[in-house]
Write a structure and sequence with these properties.
- The chain is mostly helical.
- The protein folds into 3 domains: 41 residues; 200 residues, no CATH class; 131 residues, no CATH class.
- The chain is built from 19 helices and 2 strands.
- A two-stranded antiparallel ribbon has the order 1-2.
- The chain is elongated.
- The structure holds zinc ion (ZN) (2 copies).
- One zinc ion (ZN) binds next to strand 2 and helix 18.
- This is F-box domain-containing protein.
């Protein structure tokens, strides 16, 4: 039987199960007569159902973001002017569901669901790169993300002297749970802000900003801080940050905030009682293994160079190739060496005398630091031995603990320092 031979109620069912508008347009094109007629019988409700399939129960919040994006910045003389064009949440579906908003709806839903994947892996289920949030958890995450997004767009469009009060008005209307949800997502965005700085080996500047979800995602995906450029000035507005703080302080004492906020989105954490394979301490979501090694880039890049033993970290020659390799990007600006690959190679390093490290296990960040201290220099040596025109050098007696490698270039170049010392005292800052 052909698609077009199906009874009309079945075609109607198929149309409303479509989850994006491109597919809907394609289906309508396949058979001008039959399918199009069924669609035309109730176009508005079919579009509404498909929109719902894209955004889930946060359609109203998503529509407000899409409509706000279509309003130009710096053009409005009063906030009332904006409110007249963008309906409130209660009326958003009925007033804002137009074809003009659809493309933005799809793009934004894509951003929010990618952010949800990251949030899920970092706080819900470290073993899955795709979100495993329950429907209720996912709805809270999406609602809060769209609301923050909306407020930032509002802040960019209302006249500057009205911005603070406008945002405060919205924050005051939120109930306790909604306030906490937004607070949790805002803190998550700040974490990704910090993550992208560390991933780019940048000094972390003071955190005072309200960045849009699409900018936060872009910074995370590109491992850089460029999307935050416009927030770098000291006078960048942070009204959302301030408004949430103000409303919170009026209603509650601050000491409960962190604890309540941590539970604002998630009802449960998968593997919350899991232990570190080495120190046997319960670390739960704060454990690292093959499925989340890539996320380590934004947590340890800025300290990785000091995890070389002895004076290697200040060596005039040995560390440079590692720095170059770890920072190198390809033509698409992707790092050529992913953290998954780096950790994989580190676990595979031939290190007979070293303790047993198992790449199928999960370790806490402190144990992982010890691991890196034991393995990084050995991996660097391995890379060196694999170079096509490698010239073997004699080992320095003082090995990685040699101080001379930090101030005499000739000595540093002539001898190998990627080796265990056979003489001398260990460097004073090494206690592992
Ligand atoms: Zn541990
Ligand atoms: Zn030496």
């Amino acid at each position: 039987m052909k698609f077009t031979d199906l009874p009309s109620d079945v075609v109607d069912r198929i149309l409303i199960s479509i989850s994006d508008f491109q597919t809907l347009s394609a289906s309508l094109r396949t058979s001008k007569r039959d399918i199009y007629d069924i669609f035309q019988a109730r176009p508005k409700s079919i579009v509404q159902i498909i929109a719902y399939n894209i955004t889930g129960p946060t359609l109203a919040q998503a529509l407000r973001v899409a409509s706000m994006q279509r309003l130009p910045e710096f053009l409005f003389t009063s906030s009332q002017d904006i409110h007249n064009r963008v309906a409130d949440e209660a009326h958003a579906i009925e007033k804002l569901l137009t074809r003009d908003n659809i493309e933005a709806l799809i793009q934004n839903a894509n951003v929010v669901s990618k952010l949800e994947d990251v949030f899920s892996q970092r706080y819900k289920d470290r073993k899955s790169a795709k979100s495993t949030l329950s429907c209720a958890e996912s709805e809270r995450f999406h609602r809060a993300t769209y609301r923050i997004w909306f407020l930032i767009l509002l802040q960019e469009r209302v006249p500057a002297h009205e911005a603070r009060d406008e945002i405060l008005k919205v924050a005051e209307d939120l109930n306790h749970a909604e306030l906490l949800e937004m607070d949790r997502v805002r803190v998550f965005f700040q974490e990704l802000y910090s993550w992208s700085h560390v991933a780019e080996f940048e000094q972390l500047s003071t955190l005072r900003f309200d960045a849009r979800p699409d900018q936060v995602l872009q910074a995370f995906e590109e491992f850089n801080t460029l999307p935050f450029e416009e927030y770098r000035q000291d006078d960048a507005p942070a009204h959302i940050n301030d408004a949430l703080n103000d409303v919170w302080c009026k209603r509650e004492s601050d000491d409960k905030r962190v604890e309540q906020r941590d539970k604002a989105i998630l009802d449960s954490v998968i593997g919350a009682n899991d232990i570190c394979h080495r120190c046997l301490v319960v670390k739960g979501i704060q454990l690292w293994g093959a499925s989340n090694w890539d996320l380590l880039r934004g947590y340890i890049s800025n300290e990785i160079f000091i995890l070389f033993p002895g004076y290697l970290r200040n060596s005039l020659v040995e560390i440079q190739p590692f720095k170059e390799r770890i920072r190198e990007r390809d033509d698409d600006l992707e790092p050529t060496l992913s953290f998954s690959r780096l950790l994989e190679e580190l676990f595979d390093v031939d290190a007979e005398a070293d303790e047993d490290w198992d790449k199928t296990q999960w370790y806490c960040i402190d144990c992982l630091r010890t691991f890196l201290k034991h393995r990084l220099w050995r991996l660097l040596l391995q890379w060196k031995l694999q170079e096509p025109n490698y010239q073997p050098k004699r080992d320095c007696w003082y090995g990685y603990d040699c101080r001379t490698q930090t101030h005499r270039l000739m000595h540093a170049q002539r001898l190998n320092h990627l080796c265990v010392p056979t003489r001398g005292d260990p460097a004073p800052f090494d206690n592992d």
